[in-house]
Design goal:
The complex is a heterodimer of chains A (145) and B (85). Chain A has 145 residues and is α+β, with helices and mostly antiparallel strands. Chain A has helices at 11-18, 51-68, 99-116, and strands at 4-5, 25-32, 42-49, 73-79, 81-84, 88-96, 119-125, 129-133, 139-144. Chain A is elongated, with a radius of gyration of 16 Å. The radius of gyration of chain B is 12 Å and the shape is globular. The chains are: A alpha+beta (145), B alpha+beta (85).
């Protein structure tokens, strides 16, 4: 199943995919679109990606997870398209017999998403502008919507 | 006679806006590197100077350094700073 989706991330589905009676610890991470004082009136973010490479890179990341934490069960979904403030752009769920591995694998996956997966985001703002943002949420370029 | 390779070049996000396209095809003398492809893009495409001299790059769906060799039929992608998650 593809990691990429244009549908809302379902925590229920993530958990159902990894549930196992052998797992005693489960972690869920959701990255959500925010609009605080520093976000300049963000109403939504448009996510786009180099889709074939996103899938290929996720395959590599998850192979690394299997090697480092063989007992961990995981599921990941990353949205493309329009994601509104408060909605999740990425959902990661991990489960393991013990909590340490679940936490570690979950953190590993989200950090790899940030560093390796070719996805980009363009903030849509209340003033009608659309701004590509860099990994730190700072404008990379500006232009009309 | 020097060999020539056909390289498929892809642009995304801000880079696609700068060059006004999502892809192009270059005929490039071989041997060549990803850096050579960068130079051709910067020199020949309208808006190409907006692509950094040393961008993040992928070769056939894998992150590579700019000194990676390219072969006929390869796909090179220039990646703006990643912003997933």
């Amino acid at each position: 199943m593809s990691v990429l989706t244009r549908d809302p991330v379902s925590v229920e589905h993530l958990l159902a995919d990894i549930a196992s009676p052998e797992c005693g610890g489960t972690c869920v991470f959701l990255g959500t679109v925010r609009s605080g004082p520093a976000e300049h009136g963000v109403t939504a973010i448009e996510y786009s990606g180099y889709e074939q490479m996103v899938e290929a890179e996720f395959a590599r990341v998850l192979a690394e997870v299997r090697e480092r934490w063989p007992a961990v069960r995981y599921q990941v979904r990353h949205r493309l398209g329009l994601v509104r403030v408060g909605e999740a752009s990425v959902g990661i769920a991990t489960a393991a017999p013990h909590r340490v591995q679940a936490f570690e694998a979950c953190r590993y996956i989200i950090e790899a998403v940030k560093q390796r997966v070719p996805i980009w985001k363009r903030e849509l703002r209340a003033d009608g502008t659309a701004v590509w943002v860099d990994p730190f949420g700072l404008p990379a370029a500006a232009g009309p919507r | 006679m020097a060999a020539t390779g056909t390289i498929h070049v892809r642009f995304f996000a801000r880079y696609a806006e700068l060059v006004g396209r999502e892809e192009t095809v270059l005929a490039i003398p071989l041997p060549a590197t990803v850096q050579d492809v960068v130079r051709r893009v910067r020199d020949e495409l309208p808006g190409g100077r907006g692509i950094p001299e040393r961008p993040l790059a992928a070769l056939n769906l894998t992150h590579v350094k700019l000194d990676a060799s390219v072969q006929d039929g390869d796909e090179v992608a220039f990646l703006p700073p990643l912003a997933g998650g």
